[in-house]
Amino acid sequence: MKKLVILGGGYGGMRVLSSIIPHLPYDLMVILIDKVPFHFLKTEYYAIAAGTVHDKSLQIPFPNHPQVSLIQAEVEKIDLHNNKVWLTGKNPIEYDDLIIGLGCEDNYHQVEGAEKYTHSIQTISKSKRTHKQLRHLPEGAKIAIIGGGLSGVELAAELAESSKLQISLFDRGDAILSSYPKKVRNYVERWFKDKKVIVIKNSVITRIEEDIVYNHGSPIPFDCIVWTAGIQPNKIVRTLDVEKDKKGRITLSKYHHLPNNDRVFVVGDCASLKHPPSAQLAEGQAEQIAFVLTSRWKGKVLPDHLPPIKLKGVLGSLGKKVGFGLIAKTALTGRIPRLIKHGVLWKDKNKKNKITD
């Protein structure tokens, strides 16, 4: 039996798997390797950290199929020369084709003490640990969130609405959500002002100590510090001796495999693509990888070019009632984007659950 090994059951890995299952050749076994036994809706990890959503409501079983097996393990090393994946505490796995979808990690930008003294929402386990830390704090405790992008804003909003903590949101730019239109930024800032969330712009975090944030060199005490200030490819990918872009993401061919190895694909946050990493982008790329694989299995000639990956937009939550977003270049604020996001999540979860039945 030939082996297709998929590293990571995130949005990209899950979409590849669900897309190829109806087309699997009889002589192919698919092995999915992930640290956890479920696919999780990572875009909602901020709500787990805030304690407003239980992790079980975000978990989706991986597809059940006789030619698909799951290995719950941590990837230790990828040996591209010998077609092997090394796992912690387990025997190495050989592959004929490999899909690397290991996702991302926090990027601490070489800020001293940031990794040691801050909490995270990058994984399900880290999000749960962050919640454990937050839920034991008394009313009025001071929380620092470092990073004013989508994750930081959603976490700050969820905590502001669901707790009586004092939230400070640090951002290095002139405005939070810098990639969004001014209408969206102003709406979010007004919402934060109403909820008494302190937004600290043009911040320069020079050091983190235990319960202390140094902004422009000045110490500010907090009871808990959460880092949401950027991501980088998984450490396994960072150690691979392959061509990468300036952000450490792997450079790929037009068919999403390594330029010099058409048996190794990369999907999601570790791939160098034209758009910033997102769940939507990972799923769009995954569908194209599935198309390339199924075309090969059926002996079909691949087209000269794959179509551009179409992104529908971005939606964010400000608590449970309102939100913001950008759909087809149209800025949205208020209840409508929150309702749309809720509907998208419901649809996505039910669609994935049907695949696993």
Automatic annotation (TrEMBL):
GO terms for biological process: aerobic electron transport chain. Keywords: FAD, Flavoprotein, Oxidoreductase. Its cofactor is FAD. The keyword Oxidoreductase applies. GO terms for molecular function: NAD(P)H dehydrogenase (quinone) activity. Residues 3-286 form the FAD/NAD(P)-binding domain. It holds the Pfam family Pyr_redox_2. The keyword Acetylation does not apply. Belongs to the NADH dehydrogenase family. This is NAD(P)/FAD-dependent oxidoreductase. The lineage of its organism: Bacteria, Bacillati, Bacillota, Bacilli, Bacillales.
